[in-house]
Amino acid sequence: MYGSASTHDLPTTALTGLENEDPILLAEFEARINRGEKIEPGDWMPALYRKQLTRMIEQHAHSEIIGSLPEGTWITRAPGFRRKMAQMAKVQDEVGHAQLLYSAAETLGKTREEMLTDLINGKSKYSNVFNYPTPTWADSNVISWLIDAGAIVNQLANAKGSYGPYCRALDRICAEEAFHLKYGHDAVVHLATGTPIQRKMMQEALNRWWPAIMTFFGPSDKMSVHTEILMRWKVKMASNDECRNQFLDMYVPKIWEIGLTLPDANLRKNEETGQWEFTEPDWEDFKRVINGDGPCNAERIAVRRAAEENGAWVRRALLTPKTQYVRPLA
Amino acid sequence: MNPTLDLLYRLADDQLILGHRNSEWNGLGPILEEDIAFSSMAQDKLGHSLQLYSLLRALGEAEPDTVAFTRNAPQFHCCQLVELPIGEYDFSLTRHFLFDHAELLRFEALATSSYEPLAQVARKLRGELKYHALHANTWMKRLGTATDEAIERMQRSLDFTLPYALGIFEKTDAEAEIISSGLFVGEDELRGRWLESISKVLAQTALEVPDVLALTPVMGGRYGQHTEHLQPLLDEMAEVFRLDPTADW
Amino acid sequence: MIHSHDPRMNRLGLPDAPATAAAKGALDQFGTYEAFHQKKEGAPFVYVGPVHAPEADVAFLFAKEQYSRRFACTGLWVVPTAAITVTDYVGDQEWAYDSLPLLTNQQAAATATADPRFGDDTAAEEAAYAAGEEDYDIFHLKKRGKAHQHVGKVRANSPAQALQVAKAVFGDQRPVVNVWAARSADFLRSDDEDRDIWTTTPDKKYRDAISYKVQDRIERFKAETGTSQAD
Q1: Which of A26, A46, A141, A219 has the fewest C-beta atoms lying within 10 Å of its C-beta?
Q2: Full-model pTM
Q3: Which domains, from first to last, does chain A contain?
């Protein structure tokens, strides 16, 4: 799972540092990307490319490991064997995705130790939606379906990006997410078409989550800082607005067809432009939450920290003197 | 109780409750990769219990979901070992080691059970159980020969857990018939094989193994006597399901 | 204490405002092993990714669940990352072996005797091993962004020589944008005897997208409730 939290700390063009790069190497690098070839870890790359990719893949990895928590909230309470086993498999997959993504980020030079340290000290961001709680089983289902759906829109775009290790990780992740999406849809449909208790639970969860879902792809492109160079380098692959529009196009009809409503009276598709119209999300609130003041920020970090601390003795015990670290290869 | 039902309920309940317990580690493990591996094994256990409850269903018992999510503690036949809280990783690994050795040997024996549907299930699980045992042995050997801190933790966990592990082999009134009808080789025989099997691995560690058969086993689980931990576990597990047990979730 | 909606977290007893956590020490997450899987019997082993692990046996346990739990797999190898020698990456239209240093005549002769074709002369092979040569596994990357694939083994007395021998032995293969070579002895490989550990995946339908078929239920709902609110 992933959201474009990264779009908030992109550099402005004034700070790219490109003037310090070797122009010949830079031209070769850009020519390779223009030819449609991937960049691999052994290649020369501009410092800015390395830095932005590291940040983006690392945030994506954090989003997976933190993203396992709101659904993990219901892992011991999933109703019935089918849901119980699938919920476990899904939460497991999120941890697996984090592992894949941390590995991809490591090929750029930042160690997993450094990334985990930054996470548990609140220095790194992760997708803001995971700072909201899942007070009912239905909330967990909303994430399984719609947050994963949003993530897939994002990830399919990023899988066409320029960095080989990230693409390989995303290919695997997207293949696994196919199950998540179907599972989430299945669970939501069962509630939405079920008993009055189930339908009420589902509608309330959707109402709670809709504002967060609308922020999932990040602020409107017209509000975002300049990202042209990252688009050119195929680091950022699709605009926030395009992703959001694609998501709404694919999923709003599916939400409506099962009798659920969305808490935005202005939500409608403009058939002339093909664009969805909606009430602008509360970006001030979004900023407040992403900067630490959301309902679950403290808990999410505290949980990760507890897991790391409780497991420290195990890792200490396993470490052997001959252990050496070199970056993963690809 | 009919010996086949008696045996199946014990097996299925053990798998369900331990699978549930082990799933609590999901997202909280000591290493990302281990988190994934431990979750797979928890899922496997849930899968085993579902297959066993399905055999019970074929014998006229209620649907697996009903059996798993609506009974209360006194109706459960699991041993007390599986219901204990997950504690710290040393305990969860030790329980995994002690239980999964018994599980592997039990299903090996059941592969030739006179009750063919059960024998079929047992043969199918072989590959999974092999991995579980490999995982348990690797960890036990690594931690049991590692730092003083790790050895001390594992020793404490082993000492605490062994009496509960002996409760796996608690016999029921149906035991004689279970053996004579060829359903299963019996708990005493299994316990002997288990002791030999765990001893081989423990001998490769710095851990001291007490005279296991001289320990007082923690019994009662097979007759519905449980620790104070089981009912809260069941209440939690069924919290959503019981909102409306007739609903399709 | 933080009160969570997750009962597991409440059992953990999370402190309210934890102090800053200490930075993780080097090697807290160990070194890495690279994993290769085989999708079906007889298929070449293909690179899937790394795992962090303290030893090969643990790396194997980890890689098995991380890389084979969701899709068919019939075999797995792990090797320490540090044990792999990597050539330069070249462009998708180029040949990675061209980036190897050119050999002197003497080196070329040594390479030729080292291994014209692997394993077809037992006596010569034994002599070579006795002289300190070892087997190396060779992997090719055919296109940037794809995964390295096993192409075979060569015998050599160093990683550098293994790459030179591979150039001779696998020289007819194009394209090759990158080559990995690692001593065969450094791999931990799944056992043929343990094949049954790979046969379990197809039974886990709950992890497959195709086992969630909900369209009938949607149609039934629409039929029962009339037109949907979208209309």
Answers
A1: A26
A2: 0.96
A3: 5-307 (1.20.1260.10)
